[in-house]
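Incident log, support desk, overnight shift.

02:14 A customer reports that sequence design results differ from what the structure should imply. Their input is reproduced verbatim below. On-call engineer (initials T.W.) acknowledged and began investigating.
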């Protein structure tokens, strides 16, 4: 079955960096677009970035361009989110997602807390 497992979250000070990972299994990873979303306390889940199946195309929410970078390693069935210059409003649970056959599959999420 499709499984997405995020890791790499934690507590970081404002201005710091984190790299999130999402390990995928149960499907042909290299054939599918992958996305990162986040959900801050009391807010709706929002798209952060997505990356094409080959990694050749990426897209970001405007407010995060230049600070966040999405990438993937198809040999390792893993998608990454490098987050730099983190701000307190980056505090959220971060999820990876893929869509297969019209069905969205989500990981369990990883908590990122940006605080001094």
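02:41 Re-run completed on a clean worker. Output:
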């Amino acid at each position: 079955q499709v499984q997405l497992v995020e890791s790499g979250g934690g507590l970081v000070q404002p201005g710091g960096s984190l790299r999130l990972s999402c390990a995928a299994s149960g499907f042909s990873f290299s054939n599918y677009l992958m996305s990162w979303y986040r959900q801050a306390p009391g807010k709706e889940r929002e798209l952060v970035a997505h990356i094409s199946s080959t990694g050749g195309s990426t897209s970001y929410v405007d407010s995060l361009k230049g600070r966040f970078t999405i990438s993937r390693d198809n040999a390792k069935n893993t998608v990454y989110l490098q987050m730099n210059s983190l701000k307190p409003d980056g505090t959220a649970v971060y999820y990876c997602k893929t869509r297969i056959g019209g069905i969205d599959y989500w990981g369990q999420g990883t908590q990122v807390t940006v605080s001094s």
